[in-house]
Structure formats: C-alpha cells, structure tokens
Amino acid sequence: MARFRKPLIVIATGTAVTGLSLFALDWADKHFPPPIEAARSVSTEILDRDGQLLRAFATREGLWRLKTTAEDVDPALIRMLVAYEDRRFDRHAGVDMLALGRAAWQFVTNGRIVSGASTLSMQVARLIEPRRERSLTAKLIQIARALQLERRLSKSEILDLYLTHAPYGGNLEGVRAASLAWFGKEPKRLTTAEAALLVALPQLPEKRRPDRFADNALQARKRVLERAEEAAIIEPSEIAFALNADLPRARRQLPALAPHLAEAARRASPTTERHQTTLLRPVQEKLETVAAEAGRKLDPKVSLALVMADATTGEIVAEVGAADYFDASRSGWIDMTRAERSPGSTLKPFIYGLALELGLVAQETIVEDRPADFFGYRPKNFDMQYQGDVTIRQALQLSLNVPAVRLLDSVGPSRLMVRLRRAEVGLKLPPNEVPGLAIALGGVGVTLKGLVQLYAGLANREQPVRLGDGIRDKPGLIDDQPLLEPIAAWTIADILGAVRPPAGSPPAGIAYKTGTSYGYRDAWSVGYDGRYVLGVWIGRPDNAAVPGISGYKTAAPILFEAFAKSGLAGTALPRAPTGAAHLAANDLPAGLRRFSINPNGLVSASAREKPPQIVYPPEGAQLELGRDAAGTPLPLVMKMQAGRAPFRWLVDGKPMTDSTRRRTGEWHPPGQGQATLTVIDADGRAASVNVFIRE
Question: DSSP string spanning 244-259?
Fold first, then answer.
C-alpha cells in the first residue's frame, strides 16, 4: 500500500493545482473580462434604399470605423489575410503554440525577432485594448485576452472584429473605411492587388501609406502576394497581374451625401448604428452635383433645394436641402426642403383641375384676362400686361393671374383647401386669416416637400401618396379619394405637358409648372412624368428678395437638367382615361364656350339661371368604356353644367342615384346598347343626351 501512496499524492497534488489554476483563471476571466462591448462602437452610417453608404459619422474618438463583417469583404481578401497572418486560425484556441515556439527559437538563435507569433485573436485583443508599452507583460496580457476572446466569441465574430478595427493610418480603421478611402468602393468586389494591399497595410499603417511611401507599400503587397502563391489560394496568372498593378496615389474622402437628411436621422435616433433611407445613391449624387453647379451661377447668398419622389410609392429618391451644406454665406446648414415659403403660382393647376372636375370649364373655354376687382382684391399679371380673351389652356400655360382668381372665386377657396387636404399637405395661412382668393397667387405657406407631395397626387391620378420623411415615416398610398378625378388630372397633365421647356433645356417629356412668389423671394418649378415628381426651389434662406429671379427663367432650367441627369426620366405620362377628350372650341356645348362672369369677377346670375346642360358625353356619342387591370368594366363619367343644385341623374327614365350637389356622376352600363341619360336640377329643368355603349 505504501508503494502507491507517493504516486497518489503526486496525482492529488497535480489535480489540486490544476483545479486551483483553472479556478483562478475562471475567477480572473469573470472579474477582468475583455472590453468587447466597448469595441463594438462604430461609426454611424446613413444608407440608401439598396444599402449603399450615403454618409458616415466619425466615432467620438474621431475615427472612421465602419462596421465590417466577412460577408462585406471579397473572399480573396479573407483567404490572403488568414494565409499571411494566421494560417492555423481555425485550429488554435487563441494562441498558436507552434508559431510561438518557432518565434522563440528564432529569437534565441538569431538574437533578434525574425518572425512574429501573434494570431488574429491576439491582434484583436491588442486592437480593442491598446497598450503603449511593448513588453513581456503586455504580450502576456495580450495572450490572456486572446484566450478570453476565444471563450466568448466564435471564430467568425473574432474575424469581424479584426476587419472592423484593423488600423490603416490616420483616423482610418477597418477594411471598409480603408477600401472606400483608397479605392472609392466597398470591399465586396476587390481586385487581387487591392485585397493584397489591404492585408499588408495594418502591420505598419503609417509607414506603408501608398500615397506617401509607395515603395514600402509595393514591397509589403508583394510579400502578401507571394504568401498567397505559396498557399495556392490565388491563381499564378492573377498574382503576376497584381504585382504590376498601380497603387492608389491619394486618399479619397468617404461619402458625404444627403447631409441634411443624415443629420436629421442621427438626431432622431443617436444610438442607431445604421439608418436606412428611401434615397437612391446614384440619383442623390447626380442631383447634388446639379445643385452645386447651379449654386455657383447664383448670387453667393442665394440657395436652392430639390426633392425627387416616386409618385407610385411615395418614396423620396433624392433630397438636396441646400446648394452647399458647408457654405455659410448661403446658410447651407438650413434644410430648405422643409422651410415654409410662398408657392407663387404653383397651386394654379389644382384650381383649374377643380373647375374642370366641376364642369365649369373645358380646355378651350374662353376666359377673360382683363383687370378685375374682387371686392377690393385686384390681382395683376406677373408682367403687368393683360391678354384679353384666352382659352383655359392658354391661361394655365401662360400662368395668367386674373383667370386663376376668377376660377378660384367660382370654385371657392375653402373647397380648394379641403381638396388639397386629401394629399395630407398642410398649407399655412397668415395669422387670423381665412382661405381667400390670394391662395391662387401664393398667399399660403408650403414646403418644397409638401408641394412635391401635392404634385405626386397629379402624377398618380388614382390615389394621392404620402412621401414620409425619407427615414422613419413610412411612405405609401393615402387611403382616400383621388386628389382630382382622373379626367381632370389627365387634362391638367395634357395642358402642362405642352408648355415649352426653357431655352437650351433638354426635352424631358414632363408636365411642369413654375411659380414666383411676391417680391421675388422664391422661384419654383415642379414637374412630373408617368412615375417621378421633381421639385426645385430657389431663394434666400433669410427670405430676402432676390431681384430678377423667376420660376421659368431661374428654376425651370434646373428642373429639366436634374430630370435629365437623374437617370430616372423616361416614363411616359399616362394615357387619357376613358371619357377624356380635348374638344375643339366648336365642339363644346354652348354653355362651355365662355366662362361667364360679371364685372366683379363673380359667376353671373344669368349663368346660374341657365338650365342644366350635359357636357359629357355629347349627343349621339358611341362609347367603348374598356376594363381595368382586374377585368372590371369601367364606368361612364358624366358631366353637366349650369342649373341649380341639387341634381338627379336618370338612365332611360329611371333614377340612377340619390340627388347630389356634384356636377359629375358615374354610370355602370349593364351591357351594350342605346341609352338616354338625363339630369334634372332643383328647379325641375332637365337635359338629355342619347348615347350608344359598345363592348
């Protein structure tokens, strides 16, 4: 029994020592954990709709440290990194004992350090907890931290920390920041030469900068490529090509697009690492370039803003809040897309649209452009001239003021304001003011974003859309009626689409309207095609006058240039809906040939006393209504004018609906055949037309 006592004591002692050592290590590990959470601090990123970087903000330490994972990086870089830095990365537990032994033997036999033994885990430990001194104690702490990291994190998580924190000189950290700074692109698709350079730089980031020490960078890149060739992870032909590739000669700036939107996103949620927006980076870049070039041609204190949106979804695809964000003379830090200003004449299309919808006018209806007094309000045209008798089409295309006020007086300012609320756009009236006729000429406040949202309701004639803010507020369709009935919306597009572009502007196939606010403070231009809406504002952020600016001469050329350069132009305006037509003056019913008014600009009593007239469909019309996308037969839209409300519609003598005050109606024919449509007003006066419905 005695002969077994000594071995048992040795075993027990060894077990106890091992247990105590493990306990001590476990205690130390729990009470002195590695600073992993602190290491997760990265730059805030603002991304476009597709995940492309628009702008990044430096960390509190002033570092460009973009979060990077292996999925964000070209696989060739990962293979070269492991082959060059840590061949047994997947097999060790934080410390490569073979490499450590080799390095120690080389140091003893050569009297100097020949090769290192730091694993990627040890390098991560040093990166997240840097130490100034290079001593044996510091190296032992680094080894301990590497073991701790391996206990807490997977190999892929450790690799991601290296890719995020690797130093690249100056205030650059991580592969993504370095790739953007040196190559101007994300590291997802790197050339072999680019990947090798990014593997080589972190060892001596300042002494291997390719813009300052090109020879050092070339030699370091060569060693990485040679190691990759030895490991047979890159084809020899690619290695040969990479060895002769040029180095980048200058460090680029990281993307700094959409600064106003980026600042707003960060203020709203300071702790969020990545903010997804609805913007499209290529479009944003092009519109910022257009704004910067246009700004250089303007007075130093004049700024401009642009908003481009998708009328089918409500997504803002580009937003420029100032000509130059960093220009103090223009107060470039002020986001002018959200500043309330007078819209000038840009609300006129909605006045005309309501008048068309109510059956008061048609495109070729004659309206007077002569001096008029609306109970003390005497509007004048922009050029102080008057055109006499003009058609509704001409009046809107020339943006004449008096005809617009005449129509608004008949339509009613309150009705216009209520209708515009369908688009969920708030128009700001002067204090203690009720809606008045001055609205026609810009007597309300609206933002550029709000104006674009209104015009999106014209472009998407089926349903208005909500633009949101491009960041948090989700865009989408507004669950309501159309902003204007489809025929009225098409008619407005037909009129505005025929307005000539400014001299020298590229054709864009858009319908557009301009506006200039009172006192030359704001110049506007808003245009749309079959899908996108673009708005331009020009003025001074301090609301001072800018003599000589106008919507047509100053803002419209920028609108056409921006539309052409956006890369999104080309969607044709929608076709005319069923029932829409541009009737010649001779084909109009008698009541639609002239917009009747008295000298005060009011709808004359004689016009009110006229019996009702059906202005659409015309007598004897043969109509083919068609079907919608779901195959449902489309209704026949009927319009009438004159008479006294309320009205009742009949088909073949049978009442179709309850009485209504609207001068339009819809009828769903049961099939093909002849039908008589009748409308009766409050005084019992009637009008009828005979039509034939074809399938």
Answer: TPPPP-SPPPPPB--H
